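wait is this the right file?? whatever heres the structure
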């Protein structure tokens, strides 16, 4: 006869596990000896090994009791059902792993592939990562709000970044955002940006620079998000407003007073 510790050791589990199986009604509690200790026979070891094997295979404890009492045909059917459930869980976990991999890879978790390509193109062109991140965050909101319009918007973005003048604009913007708010050279860069915007608007039309048609509350939210990502942008927008243009997400001409 075995003590509870010896039983646990023979079956490869802990004493705490044995007591847990007792509490769940999976392993019958034996009679106690004259000293008040439980004593187990070899049959208890076999039963405990069966319970441990089923539990380690992923069978819920609630079903272990059912399987232990099943005949051969019922046992085979139950095991097949459990195997089917485990395969479904494996597929689900694989999907979770794929999502985690995409998260580790960066933007593709939350953005359509064409937007990810656009952001990568900006990086290749040398656009500062802070601006890319601000644009990325804006695209996350846009794609969540109006996914059906992403192809339309991304088409216009592709047209813009194919224009060397637009890339020059981004590079000037990079320089401006690298300056502290009180840097006197910031005003000069704001002049350059405003002149660039005006020139593109005159040559290609204001729709070319004011290229996004979304509701004002969403524009405000996207602007706030961008300013949180790139704080110097707030001061730069103030300077641009003095030069006839305003807005980060939705660039608009300021009407003369």
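ok assuming it is, sequence goes like this
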């Amino acid at each position: 006869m075995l003590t509870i510790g010896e039983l646990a050791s023979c079956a490869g589990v802990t004493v705490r596990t044995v007591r847990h199986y007792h509490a769940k009604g999976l392993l019958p509690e034996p009679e106690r000896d004259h000293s008040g200790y439980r004593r187990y026979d070899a049959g208890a070891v076999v039963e405990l090994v069966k319970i441990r094997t089923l539990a380690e295979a992923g069978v819920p404890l609630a079903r272990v009791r059912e399987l232990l009492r099943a005949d051969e045909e019922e046992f085979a059917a139950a095991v097949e059902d459990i195997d089917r459930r485990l395969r479904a869980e494996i597929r689900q976990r694989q999907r979770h792993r794929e999502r985690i991999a995409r998260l580790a890879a960066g933007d593709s978790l939350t953005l359509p592939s064409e937007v990810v390509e656009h952001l990568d193109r900006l990086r290749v062109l040398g656009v500062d990562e802070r601006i890319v991140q601000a644009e990325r965050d804006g695209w996350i909101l846009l794609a969540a709000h109006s996914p059906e319009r992403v192809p339309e918007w991304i088409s216009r973005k592709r047209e813009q970044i194919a224009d060397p003048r637009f890339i020059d604009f981004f590079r000037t913007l990079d320089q401006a955002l690298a300056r502290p708010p009180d840097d006197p050279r910031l005003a000069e860069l704001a002049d350059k940006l405003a002149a660039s915007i005006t020139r593109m608007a005159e040559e290609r039309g204001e729709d070319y620079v004011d290229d996004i048609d979304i509701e004002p509350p969403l524009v405000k939210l996207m602007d706030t998000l961008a300013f949180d990502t790139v704080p110097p942008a707030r001061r730069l927008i103030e300077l641009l407003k003095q030069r006839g243009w305003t807005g980060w997400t939705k660039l608009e001409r300021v009407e003369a007073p």
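The longest strand covers residues 245-246. so i think its the right one actually
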